[in-house]
TrEMBL record:
<feature type="domain" description="AB hydrolase-1">
    <location>
        <begin position="29"/>
        <end position="287"/>
    </location>
</feature>
<dbReference type="InterPro" id="IPR050266">
    <property type="entry name" value="AB_hydrolase_sf"/>
</dbReference>
<protein>
    <submittedName>
        <fullName>Alpha/beta fold hydrolase</fullName>
    </submittedName>
</protein>
<dbReference type="InterPro" id="IPR029058">
    <property type="entry name" value="AB_hydrolase_fold"/>
</dbReference>
<dbReference type="InterPro" id="IPR000639">
    <property type="entry name" value="Epox_hydrolase-like"/>
</dbReference>
<dbReference type="GO" id="GO:0016787">
    <property type="term" value="F:hydrolase activity"/>
</dbReference>
<dbReference type="Pfam" id="PF12697">
    <property type="entry name" value="Abhydrolase_6"/>
</dbReference>
<dbReference type="InterPro" id="IPR000073">
    <property type="entry name" value="AB_hydrolase_1"/>
</dbReference>
<keyword id="KW-0378">Hydrolase</keyword>
């Protein structure tokens, strides 16, 4: 069973969060979804983690302007604000113990912003990282699977369109057009092999995102540069996953992250697209469980190492 809660952020925006697992778990996993999506896209990983023999605590929440969370003002539709929101979620829902952060697409970029804007907190709290279909270099490598000239035209059109949508308000008139978006979104977001239920879920979440959020976050996502931030994180257990048919954050994006983070394991999935957490959910779940296991084992070693000192203190 899960527990839902509504968090109120310092600027008054509300976030819809959901938690699973014991409060005294050795590790807390926080799942961050992508642009125009919601926490529901992590459903397979949530199921896998909660069914583990020694389950972690799991937290998933809808970013501002997405899912069931409150609408965002246009000026707050930035990755930097999402990084601050993540810091607040941790303070309210996971104030103690080691944390594993897992981010898909915009969620991975949110993790990088948290590391950049709250380096002290990040160093104290974060014990493991999973980056899925994301980038630390904005749209530098985004070619949409097209030749360079066509990609440049598409990027320019997307930027102009995003500006118009950003000023269209916190409403969702495109929800009625979702069936017509099926083919273009399937091409943009999915690879060769996927379940129809995954596409339906993706279409519903896109349809449920406000126009302001669809357009408002685009500039921040396109401009982010956080390779230097990653390079300063040190030796954190981490994995980077990407599909070789990802048209939004292609393999060079994942390679840049892996090169910046020492000891990071990079996995490229043949035939998979951008929605890797749905397309290759078992493999993503296994990678996440592996990081959680490493963090839990490290905590056990630290606990054992401290026990003799406590015994000596009592004897004295």
């Amino acid at each position: 069973m899960s527990e839902r809660s509504v968090l109120t952020l310092p600027d008054g925006v509300t976030l819809c969060a959901e938690t699973w697992g014991p409060r005294d778990a050795k590790v807390t996993v926080v799942l961050l979804h992508g642009w125009c999506l919601s926490r529901r896209t992590w459903q397979h990983q949530i199921t896998a983690l909660t069914r583990a023999t020694d389950p972690p605590r799991v937290i998933a929440f809808d970013a501002r302007g997405h899912g069931r969370s409150g609408a965002t003002r246009l000026g707050s539709a930035t990755l930097g604000q999402l990084g601050d929101d993540l810091a607040e979620v941790l303070r309210q829902l996971a104030p103690e113990g080691p944390v594993v952060l897992a981010g898909h697409s915009m969620g991975g970029m949110t993790i990088m912003e948290y590391a950049h804007r709250h380096p002290g907190e990040f160093a104290r709290r974060v014990a493991g990282l999973l980056f899925v279909s994301t980038t630390a270099e904005g749209t530098a490598h985004t070619m949409y699977g097209l030749p360079p000239r066509l990609a440049a035209l598409m990027r320019a059109g997307e930027t102009i369109g995003a500006g118009l949508l950003a000023r269209s308000g916190a409403w969702r008139p495109h929800r009625a057009l979702v069936p017509a978006l099926r083919l273009p979104l399937r091409w943009l977001l999915f690879g060769d092999d996927y379940e129809d239920a995954a596409l339906r879920l993706t279409l519903r979440t896109v349809g449920g995102t406000t126009l302001r959020s669809i357009g408002g976050f685009r500039n921040s996502i396109g401009e982010q540069q956080r390779i230097d931030t990653l390079a300063r994180l040190g030796d954190v257990p981490a994995a980077v996953l990407v599909g070789d048919r990802d048209r939004l954050t292609p393999p060079p994006c994942a390679e840049g992250i892996a090169e910046a983070l020492p000891g990071t394991e990079l996995t490229v999935f043949p035939g998979a697209g951008h929605m890797l957490i749905l397309e290759r959910h078992a493999e993503v779940s296994a990678a996440l469980a592996g990081i959680v296991g490493r963090v839990a084992a490290a905590k056990r070693r630290v606990t054992r190492a401290r026990k003799p000192a406590r015994v000596r203190d009592k004897a004295a």
